[in-house]
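Quick one - inputs below.
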Amino acid sequence: MNALITGSSKGIGYAIAKKFVQNNINVILHSRNIIECESAKSELELLNSKGNILCCEADLSKKNGIEILSEFVYKNIQELDILLNNAGTYIKGDILNAQEGTLEKLMDINLYSAYNLTHRLIPKLRKSRSAHIFNICSIAGLNPYKGGSLYCISKFAMNGFSRCLREELKSEGIKVTTVYPGATWSDSWKNSNVSDSRIMQAEDVAEAIISCIRMSPAAVVEEILLRPQLGDL
Ligand SMILES: NC(=O)c1ccc[n+]([C@@H]2O[C@H](COP(=O)([O-])OP(=O)(O)OC[C@H]3O[C@@H](n4cnc5c(N)ncnc54)[C@H](OP(=O)(O)O)[C@@H]3O)[C@@H](O)[C@H]2O)c1
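Output:
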């Protein structure tokens, strides 16, 4: 099986890549920084020397970044079985006080990157007998909160995209899963004082995703909602 995981040099994307490599799934690692991707690749190769790990650098907030990554996929792998739209970012800000252009920036990376990349890669996914698309949304795409309204808007949009895609691809046998993680340890939490036990680990998200891949063709997990045991932060 071959998987493309966007934004997989670190954080949740990297944890998923690690889980895939441990389960003999070949991965394309991706981010805007090829050096970080290559370093992630070296770490992953230590876990499974038989796997095929490739790296691609592309800025998905730009149309030509989508082209670079999709061309890379068409040129370098025979079949694409898993597309995992994970690349995303958090910028704080509310509707009434955010700097001009903030919503556009968030929509470019948190929605349009997944929308455009999926569009571009659907012909390739159709050739797989077990195609599966995962869209990493957020609990911010289910419940709004003050301070992060613009991020919430972008994740509500991602939620809508993913659920509509599920309806469109249902009859073709292509699975679509929307993932709503709550607070999960990654670089964005580095400067917070949150303790390890209060927040989920990226490996928890990866574990939930691999269990969906193991299901029979007759079943799809439409939604995964994960929260820290003590609730939202
Ligand atoms: N951590 C949480 O608490 C949490 C909770 C719910 C949902 N999420 C979602 O989970 C996903 C991953 O988040 P994370 O916390 O793991 O973030 P992270 O540690 O910051 O990792 C983000 C990844 O995306 C890449 N990326 C960012 N902007 C990009 C762009 N314009 N083009 C291409 N690649 C880009 C980053 O690499 P470069 O910066 O080097 O390009 C990195 O590989 C996001 O969609 C986020 O919204 C996170």
